[in-house]
Specification:
Helices cover 17% and strands 42% of the residues. The protein is an alpha+beta fold. The protein has 8 domains: 111 residues, Sandwich (Immunoglobulin-like), CATH 2.60.40.1930; 100 residues, Immunoglobulin-like (Sandwich), CATH 2.60.40; 84 residues, Sandwich (Immunoglobulin-like), CATH 2.60.40; 90 residues, Immunoglobulin-like (Sandwich), CATH 2.60.40.1930; 110 residues, S-adenosyl-L-methionine-dependent methyltransferases, CATH 2.20.130.20; 111 residues, Immunoglobulins (Immunoglobulin-like, Sandwich), CATH 2.60.40; 206 residues, Alpha/alpha barrel (Glycosyltransferase); 125 residues, Alpha-macroglobulin, receptor-binding domain (Immunoglobulin-like, Sandwich). Helix 8 packs antiparallel against helix 9, helix 16 runs parallel beside helix 18 and helix 19 crosses helix 20. The chain is globular, with a radius of gyration of 38 Å. The two termini are 74 Å apart. One of its GO terms (cellular component) is extracellular space.
Length: 1256
């Protein structure tokens, strides 16, 4: 048998081997989420497989690139459980979890990665009944509530098929609206069904929030359909006939609301009615009415007149002779049990047109005979028997019935379903409703020996998607044995026998019947295959509770390791309910070695609600000179109206309360607490506002308290307060090396302008015991620039790869840094695949670029090859990238950029592409195995460089070429190296050496350092290393991505070769009259020391004594109003106008100002920091996608800052951008916003412009 692979994500495979199923904790994920999953590997009886101990699990993104692989994942009672963190910019779409077990048998489970906002409300739109085209009135029922169950109160407007309806209606959780159907639908349409799209917009009272929803309502010519199934093909003398009438809606689905059905039966003889009688019955849950009809011998046909809700359907059942008196012989089997139950008898009725002596039956499933019997009938046309439904009949089995008449073998087959599992799991909770942070008790029951997997999902999330967890329906679908079985059954009965694995040996002739499903081929599926329904618990009225601060808002909950039940089959679980006010859907499954899999039939609903609570609207941040208007929404769902006192605490004296007197005049109050009182009727939301002026910068805590006679609530929010202006960073770093000696450094002067914003200056001293210390402790923000394109995203990989390579070679870094590096490396890899094209290349902006970039593909291929030593990397991705590069090489050995050019110094380069050719060859040469595999590529490229390159005074290209020829061992490597040494620059005391000037000097010097290290010139490399250290930023990186990539690689290689094991020295930090001593040894050198220096210090002197090496740095930052004396871009703008709906817009024009004719920029960035209180909406980002001049747009700082990526700009070629923001919160005394335009690779090219919001 093949395994049942169930992945949760849950999996199941085909029945001939084990089945596999999986479960995830959520139906969809955002980038940055953690995916938790369980994989179940079970046999065809849903039991764990003793012989199967491990499986292989792979995770692939929406481009089918391998993200992570779990080799030999160990099963515990058939379950493997793990998780993975998604990166922040991964490819969106359907990701795949693939499980393999036993000889390549595999199963997959998909889940969606998307950008989404969790809804806080539910709106359901239904019609009061099945709508017919001849109806006069369409009665709509609109139910609107928060996910925690309370009603939304406000006004409803409607639109039908995008046409607005003029009327407005009140809603208090529910609105029942009657509209003349002829006003909105042309009922003369010829189709059997017309689809009406209903759009609903609700504006909530008080908060004026807008909620929208839509639903398609079918309008049919008929409101339902009725089908007939019979136990006999026609009437038999002296025999009763069973009839099953099934009523469904016109789409074939069971009716939700069922009424009484009237069946009038008339016995006919010719044209005369002999007898008539009636039945009145209500259909069962499957919409079935069963009738047993006894007819007289004088009847030649029955007429059935079925009436339901005023409509009549007629059927006719004929006698068993046609007009020529020729009998149509048959045998037919029917189940008298509408829904076979596990471990219960299944009653069967067999009827034939002839008198039977013997009936033989077999129940067959999964190629095995599960039950059989011989029934003596004593020459009757009707026989009954029963058999026991056992678990091997789940989910489907076949009943085969035989009899012989006149040496002819007659047979019939009934396909039936048993939709139950042998195991069970039940959940009982201490209460179906509770408050946040309350303790909840769960009692889970199953068969003794079971292991339980629990999961709770926020109902808000289930509005966006389902299918993540294991349900009984999913398991039963996985257990279906043969695809297309019912279709083959109807078309070819002989082939069906063969598919059953059933052979009939007989000397009688064989007669084949038509399908027993009659006119309703889907009847059995409808009756026995209903989906499980989810029933929500009732709302509650909470008691007066204690005040809590709500901080924990997960989307899933109760996901733990698998839990064993006790000897009685019970397990008690106690947990604290999260703070989200919502409804939780709690589900579970159980695994048992004897009873197999059990799944909770109906998830348990837990409604979490405080009947009295507050929510707060704050701006993301404000400037210290501004005033934040704090909007407090008081939600009162108590049974009584309440006088509510709302207080803002100021225990830390961080704020001054501003009491509004008249326009632009405020009374400033420095009380420790300020309060207001509001009257809140029952089931209402009221708003209270406070104006706060901060007294200092930083993250300030705003505490809101609300009290009434029956309840209290409290909530804390952080308000970010900035000093104002733009933030500037400076860093002074020096290399330490002492050998049982002392070392004094020249005083370091801190240049801070007098115009710096008061209170914004911060000075920090730090020392680390190795060169890469700052970089490795700041892997997540190593430079302060946007990182939203394919090249910038490599910042998540390169520093992590260098850190891991360093650790492998020196065995010095802590486990924490290693775990952090691997985490960032995995996320960086996931993100980078977003920029991969179908041909295997990579481009700066992914698919929108249209073609791959040689520059970026070489960088990615090189880094991925290093990274695969530490994490799972899809080898096919690497191989395809290198093959693509090979195909881009021209016959003379050159590489020419085929993609868009964003970094001109490298991509366009000089002298017919020698620079880019050298850069590309590095990817092949830094990995010896690749050098051999692509030897012809390397040889052609190096020969082209050596023969073609002519020095033009640019040390950047010379440094690249010297490094490449050194790696390749080319005969001319010494010539180019000597030329390079001639161009070096040296400081006065000859302790530092560097190459070039301007934006490429760091990258140039880094390539030179790599060349020195490859030559083994370690001593001579020290002065180069010192200069590289002195140029780094406080986080360990450099001014842009390429400088950081190559700079860290060079310092990392130097560190691996020249690291010192003996660390024992003191660092003395002298400023003003203070002297600080920091001791470094083998332990402290791994973590370093850091302390703050007073902000008024302007000079620091550092001395070192002892033995060891390291780096110290003095980092200072301050805020200042930006003044660009020579702006390199001209920025023009329209007024930032605010409309009455709170939306403000502005048009920006940017023009590049070159220093030389025909000069172009590299990639250009435009950043717009909106005035505080304004945010960029998703609709604005979608509008920006339509602007062909913008390659990518994103937001930062709580959506208050808009970041735009542009192609390189030419002179007199302006860029136009329309920007828009929404006023989410109110800020008084508002500071202006700003626009910054700059060249990403050359920060000397920039311009800044300020703007104020203007009200229309």
């Amino acid at each position: 048998m093949c395994p049942l692979l169930i992945a949760t994500l849950y999996f199941i495979l085909q029945y001939t081997a084990p089945a596999n199923s999986s479960e995830t904790d959520k139906p969809l994920y955002k980038p940055g989420d953690t995916v938790k999953f369980r994989v179940l590997v079970l046999n065809h009886l849903t039991r764990p497989i003793d012989s199967l101990k491990v499986i292989n699990v792979q995770l692939k993104d929406s481009n089918s690139d391998l993200i992570r692989q779990w080799h030999y994942a160990r099963l515990q009672k058939g379950v493997f459980q793990s998780q993975i963190d998604l990166a922040n910019f991964v490819p969106l779409g359907n990701w795949t979890l693939k499980v393999s077990a036993l000889n390549g048998i595999e199963e997959t489970k998909t889940f969606n990665v998307a950008e989404y906002v969790l809804p806080l409300h539910e709106i359901h739109i239904t019609a009061s009944k099945q709508v017919q085209m001849n109806d006069e009135i369409l009665k709509l029922i609109i139910d609107a509530k928060y996910t925690f169950g309370k009603p939304i109160i406000g006004y409803v407007t409607l639109a039908f098929n995008e046409l607005n309806y003029p009327d407005m209606y009140e809603i208090n959780g529910r609105a029942v609206i009657s509209i003349p159907l002829s006003d909105i639908v042309d009922t003369d349409v010829g189709d059997d069904v017309y689809h009406l799209n209903v759009q609903v917009k609700i504006e909530e009272d008080e908060s004026e929030q807008i909620y929208e929803a839509s639903e398609t309502i079918p309008i049919h010519k008929r409101s339902y359909k009725i089908t007939l199934r019979k136990s006999s093909e026609y009437l038999l003398e002296e025999e009763s006939i069973w009839c099953w009438l099934t009523i469904t809606n016109p789409d074939g689905m069971p009716l939700t609301n069922r009424n009484v059905m009237t069946v009038k039966v008339t016995e006919m003889l010719g044209s005369r009615s002999n007898k008539h009688y009636s039945f009145q019955k209500e259909p069962d849950d499957e919409g079935v009415v069963s009738l047993k009809i006894d007819s007289s011998n004088t009847t030649d046909r029955l007429e059935l007149e079925v009436t339901y809700e005023g409509e009549t359907t007629k059927f006719e059942i004929l006698h068993g002779s046609d007009n020529n008196n020729t009998r149509n012989d048959f045998i037919k089997a029917s189940l008298l049990v509408q829904k076979p139950m596990l471990k219960h008898p299944v009653e069967v009725l067999v009827q034939s047109s002839f008198r039977m002596n013997l009936v033989i039956y077999y129940v067959i499933s999964q190629g095995e005979i599960l039950a059989s019997g011989r029934i003596s009938v004593n020459f009757k046309r009707t026989a009954t028997f029963s058999y026991l439904a056992t678990f091997p009949m789940v989910p489907e089995a076949s009943l085969v019935v035989f009899t012989i008449n006149d040496a002819m073998l007659w047979k019939d087959i009934v396909r039936f379903k048993v939709h139950e599992l042998d195991n069970f799991v039940d959940i009982e909770i201490s209460s179906n409703s509770a408050e946040p942070r309350a303790q909840i008790f769960l009692e889970v029951k199953s068969n003794p020996g079971s292991t339980i997997g629990l999961l709770a999902v926020d109902r808000s999330l289930l509005q966006l998607g389902t299918g993540n967890d294991i349900t009984q329906q999913i398991v039963l679908e996985k257990l279906v044995q043969v695809e297309g079985l019912m279709l083959e059954f109807r078309l070819n009965r002989l082939f069906f026998f063969q598919r059953l694995g059933f052979t009939v040996l007989t000397n009688a002739k064989s007669h084949f019947m038509a399908s027993p499903l009659g006119s309703s081929p889907h009847l059995l599926t409808q009756r026995f295959g209903d989906d499980e329904e989810l029933h929500l618990g009732q709302d509650m009225q909470a008691d007066h509770g204690t005040r809590i601060l709500r901080k924990n808002f997960p989307e899933t909950w109760l996901w733990t390791e698998m839990i064993e039940v006790d000897d009685k089959g019970h397990v008690d679980i106690t947990d604290i309910i999260p703070d989200t006010m919502t409804s939780w859907s709690i589900s579970a499954f159980a695994i048992n070695t004897n009873h197999g899999l059990g799944v909770v039939k109906n998830p348990v609903a837990l409604t979490v609600l405080k009947p009295f609570f507050v929510t707060v609207n704050l701006p993301y941040s404000i400037v210290k000179t501004e005033q934040a208007v704090v909007e407090v929404f008081v939600h009162n769902y108590l049974n009584q109206a309440q006088h509510v006192t709302v207080r803002v605490q100021n225990a830390q004296k961080d704020f001054i309360h501003c009491k509004h007197l008249i326009i632009n005049m405020f009374l400033l109050i420095a009380d420790l607490e300020v309060s207001k009182t509001v009257f809140a009727p029952s089931n209402s939301v009221k708003t209270v506002t406070f104006a706060l002026k901060p007294k200092r910068s930083g993250n300030l805590t705003v505490t809101i308290l609300a009290d009434c006679s029956l309840a209290t609530d409290a909530i804390q929010r952080n308000l970010r307060v900035t000093p104002g202006g733009l933030q500037y960073f400076e860093n002074s770093a020096r290399f330490i090396e002492v050998q049982n000696s002392s070392m004094s450094f020249d005083p370091i002067k801190l240049v801070i302008p007098r115009t710096a914003t008061y209170g914004s200056v911060s000075i920090t001293f730090s020392v680390e015991g190795f060169l890469l210390g700052a970089a490795l402790t700041n892997l997540d923000h190593i430079i302060r620039l946007p990182s939203g394109c394919g090249e910038q995203n490599m910042l998540n990989l390169v520093p992590s790869v260098i850190a891991l390579e360093y650790m492998d070679n020196t065995d010095t870094l802590t486990y924490g840094i290693k775990a952090k590096a691997i985490d960032y490396l995995q996320k960086g890899y996931q993100n980078q695949l977003k920029y991969k094209l179908r041909d295997g290349s990579f481009s700066v902006f992914g698919q929108s670029d249209g073609r791959g970039s040689v520059f970026l593909t070489a960088l990615v291929a090189k880094v991925f090859t290093f990274a695969k030593r530490h994490i799972t990397i899809d080898n096919y991705v690497i191989e395809k990238a290198f093959n693509w590069l090979r195909e881009r090489q021209l016959s003379d050995g050159r590489f020419v950029e085929s993609g868009r050019i964003y970094y001109k110094e490298l991509q366009s380069g000089v002298q017919d592409g020698t620079t880019l050719t050298a850069y590309t060859l590095i990817a092949f040469l830094e990995h010896k195995s690749l050098t051999q595999k692509y030897l012809s590529v390397v040889n052609k490229g190096t020969e082209y460089i050596a023969k073609t390159y002519r020095f033009d005074g640019n040390p950047y290209s010379l440094a690249l070429i010297a490094y490449v020829l050194q790696l390749a061992g080319h005969p001319r490597k010494h010539y180019f190296f000597d030329k390079l040494v001639e161009l070096s620059k040296i400081n006065e005391d000859r302790t530092m050496r560097w190459w070039g000037s301007g934006s490429t000097s760091i990258e140039t010097t880094a390539y030179v350092l790599l060349t020195y290290m490859s030559r083994g010139s370690y001593i001579d490399a020290k002065s180069i290393m010192r200069w590289m250290v002195s140029q780094r930023y406080d986080k360990g990186g450099y001014s842009n991505t390429q400088n950081t990539f190559v700079g860290l690689q060079a310092l990392g290689k130097y560190s691996r070769v020249m690291s010192l094991s003996n660390q024992n020295y003191d660092v003395f930090v002298n400023y003003d009259s203070e002297r600080q001593r920091l001791h470094m040894n083998s332990t402290t050198s791994l973590v370093g020391h850091k302390f703050n220096i007073p902000s008024d210090v302007r000079q620091v002197k550092v001395d070192v004594e002892g033995t060891g090496a390291g780096v110290f740095q003095i980092a200072h930052k301050y805020n200042n109003i930006a003044h660009d004396s020579v702006p390199r871009f001209k920025i023009e703008k329209t007024l930032f106008k605010i409309r009455s709906d709170g939306v403000a817009n502005m048009t920006i024009q940017a023009i590049y100002r070159p220093k030389k004719d025909f000069e172009e920029t590299n990639m250009v960035m435009i950043e717009v920091m909106f005035p505080n209180g304004y945010v960029v909406t998703n609709s604005q980002l979608k509008q920006l996608e339509k602007n062909n001049q913008i390659r990518r747009s994103e937001t930062a700082d709580g959506d208050t800052r808009l970041i735009l990526y542009l192609d390189p700009m030419r002179p007199n070629n302006p860029v136009y951008v329309d920007v828009e923001a929404f006023r989410k919160s109110t800020v008084l005394n508002q500071a202006p916003g700003w626009i910054k335009v700059y060249d990403y690779y050359d920060p000397t090219r920039e311009a800044i412009e300020y703007f104020d919001p203007i009200s229309n």
